[in-house]
Amino acid sequence: xTAGPLPDLPVPRLLLWRHGxxxxxxxxxxxxxxxxxxxxxxxxxxxxxxxxxxxGLVPEDTVVASSDLSRAAETAGTLAGLLGxxxxxxxxxxxxxxxxxxxxxxxxxxxxxxxxxxxxxxxxPVRGRGGEEPAAVSxxxxxxxxxxPPAGVxxxxxxxxTAGRLIERLLDLGSDHRRVFGPLANCAWSELVxxxxxxxxxxxxxxxxxxxxxRLREGSAGSTTPEDxxxxxxxxxxxx
Length: 240
Known about the structure:
The chain is of the alpha/beta class. About 30% of the residues lie in helices and about 15% in strands. It is built from 7 helices and 7 strands, in the order βααβαβαααβαβββ. It has helices spanning about 25, 40-55, 70-85, 105-110, 115-120, 135-145, 160-170, and strands spanning about 15-20, 60-65, 85-90, 155-160, 190-195, 200-210, 225-230. Strands 3-2-4-1-5-6-7 form a 7-stranded mixed β-sheet, sandwiched between helices. A hairpin with a 2-residue loop joins strand 5 and strand 6 (about 200-210). Helix 2 (about 40-55) runs parallel beside helix 3 (about 70-85) and helix 4 (about 105-110) crosses helix 5.
């Protein structure tokens, strides 16, 4: 599938926010378009991150849109509730469909489909597993964003693979430059804005990190400080 020209979007600023953790994330199990819920850690992550995001947003000029899968919708609901704005659910913001890998752990995929797994870890196209091609993922997300109402900023709550494909599409990175940017951790976000007629990545993989003793880092927003938040190595959906 060849991507066409990038359409003008009705929002000049995007915050791409990945959903909180699920038990499948913690176990290294591919979720794809299956629908496991947030676990207790994921709900806490969303509750901690939402006030920081909300502090920099004007409700009257903000749209909150989310994948309709429960792990994303519940994450998005924490922010929409704080802002007092409607939550727009859209199935086009779902995770990259992983075909026969969905429901399997990384170890199980490596054992059952070693050639596919080797291509995946190397960033090459994966043939024969079913699911979606990367270009199809980015195009359906672009279509969803084009249907948003005009606003100053859209917070788009989505998934690790989908966010990666969207960033690559907005920055016009071809297949040779996939995975230039590291994957989003659970409940981390990236910020993109239009400058000079092009999309520009201002911040990537920003998140709220608790201190080891469980207290949040204090920051200018009153309660938290954004920190780099790399995903755990076993997080299968972070890099499809």
